[in-house]
Design a protein that fits this description.
The protein folds into 2 domains: 126 residues, Conserved domain protein (Immunoglobulin-like), CATH 2.60.40.1640; 108 residues, no CATH class. It is 17% helix and 36% strand. The strands form 4 sheets. Strands 1, 2, 3, 4 and 7 form a 5-stranded antiparallel β-sheet that branches. The protein has a 4-stranded antiparallel β-sheet with strand order 6-5-8-16, with no helix packed on it. The chain has a 4-stranded antiparallel β-sheet with strand order 10-11-14-13. Strand 13 and strand 14 form a beta hairpin.
Length: 296
């Protein structure tokens, strides 16, 4: 999304830890890696990046997981949470050996430890049959919202776009002077430096210039950001009912409007179905945790 998340330098010190924090309900975290970067230069402000292993029962049934940080302070009292940051996406358990990342503000230079309180969230689709939604012949009617009782019940509206509608959508999202002024005002209100604002606006303009009309291999889906946030995965099913290869996926958001681009290896069949894996309340499990991390 076109946010103003602060950039973090890659420089840091990696520390392997063996301490564990066990949650009250069977799932907890074990800190595996700490990248402690308390160096600030130019527009960069440093960061504290953590990678944690999840420990406990039932993890084999979880498709994805994430860690939500509720409170984080170093032993000098510095608040390390990022109040303006968006919640992290769920990460598939098959990636990074099941590690889950956390990103915090850099601790005070004299700090020696950090205490983190938060919640581990698991996505377990098997707990709720309605988390898997299949829409047959989803590409037969472009520029019309997908029709599905399950999507209607979930209050999710997604529309596959034609090439013409996509081009019109891109034109409506072009950064004009009024939009740039709005982004600058938002950045200033959130304490973002002028250099960072210029950098992000330049990046947005560069991405606009790279947009091209979709070809026969490309599927464009449009909807509200809040609706896409509740979708973990979208797959395109071929005539055999199996997912077709999608080597490229991308998502962009302007305001609350989101466009998702799915690029297949070959043109999808006219009768292709879309299968959406939805993050329903019943398919999510939460476990509180607390952990103290010694810094190098």
């Amino acid at each position: 999304m076109w946010g103003f998340a602060r950039s973090a330098m890659v420089l840091g010190i990696v520390l392997l830890l063996t301490g564990a924090a066990r949650a009250q309900s069977g799932v907890g975290v074990e800190v595996d890696e700490v990248i402690d970067n308390r160096v600030a230069a130019d527009i960069f402000t440093g960061s504290l990046e953590l990678r944690v292993k999840l420990k406990g029962t039932g993890l084999d049934k979880a498709t994805a997981a994430r860690v939500l940080v509720k409170e984080a302070r170093d032993d000098r009292g510095t608040v390390l949470t990022r109040p303006d940051a968006d919640p992290p996406d769920f990460m598939g358990r098959e990636y990074n050996n099941g590690m889950v990342p956390m990103s915090l503000r850099p601790p005070a230079r004299a700090a020696t430890s950090v205490k983190v309180k938060g919640t581990v969230e698991l996505f377990v689709p098997g707990r709720d049959p309605s988390s898997t939604v299949k829409v047959d012949k989803a590409l037969a009617k472009l520029d019309t919202p997908l029709t599905s009782k399950a999507l209607k019940a979930a209050k999710i509206e997604i529309t596959p776009l034609s090439a013409a509608a996509y081009t019109a959508k891109l034109k409506s999202r072009t950064l004009d002077e009024a939009e740039i002024a709005k982004l600058r005002a938002e950045g200033v209100a959130r304490g973002v430096s002028e250099k960072e604002i210029d950098l992000m606006i330049g990046l947005a303009k560069a991405m606009e210039s790279s947009d091209a009309p979709p070809d026969a291999n490309t599927i464009i889906l449009s909807g509200e950001e809040s609706d896409f946030d509740r979708i973990y995965l979208i797959e395109v099913l071929g005539a055999d009912g199996q997912p077709i290869n999608l080597p490229q996926r991308s998502t962009s958001t302007r305001g609350t409007d989101t466009l998702m681009t799915l690029v297949a290896s070959s043109p999808p069949p006219p009768n292709a179905a879309l299968q959406l894996t939805v993050l329903t309340d019943k398919s999510r499990m939460s476990f509180p945790f607390e952990v103290t991390i010694e810094l190098p």
